[in-house]
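Lab channel / #folding
Pinned by the channel admin:
"Please post every new chain as: sequence first, then the structure tokens as a reply. Keep commentary short and put observations after the output so the thread stays searchable."

First post following the new format, from NK:
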Amino acid sequence: MIIGTGIDLVDIPRFERTISRTPRLMERLFAPTERALKLPSLAARYAAKEALIKALGGSDGVHWTEIEIGSEESGKPYFRLTGTTADVVEQRGITSLHLTMSHDAGLATAFVIAEHLDERSAERIENAEGAA
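Reply from TO:
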């Protein structure tokens, strides 16, 4: 069952100007492992964090640096949540987060689906994947 969805769009040049004017934002918005990334990737991660907050229905208990976006070997992005942010996700009954991000032509975007999979739903998915 879908608990929430979120989408966000970031103007990369505007994001760059904001970061240039207020360098301390890097520490407030991004986990240490994210800070070395190029600006378009940072903008996409910012969009992903905003989209997650929208999917959660608000930012109570959510801390930016507790939301880290990693990438699987295939390039597929995923959330790595810690602290009270991970607690908020669990308390809201979310068992799975789906994330997609992109950046091109001066824009970065992200879309998030927050989902609750009960045992029966998880079993149906496993059976469908096995049949494919």
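NK: The first helix runs from residue 12 to 21.
TO: also worth noting, The beta strands are 2-11, 67-71, 77-81, 96-104, 107-115.
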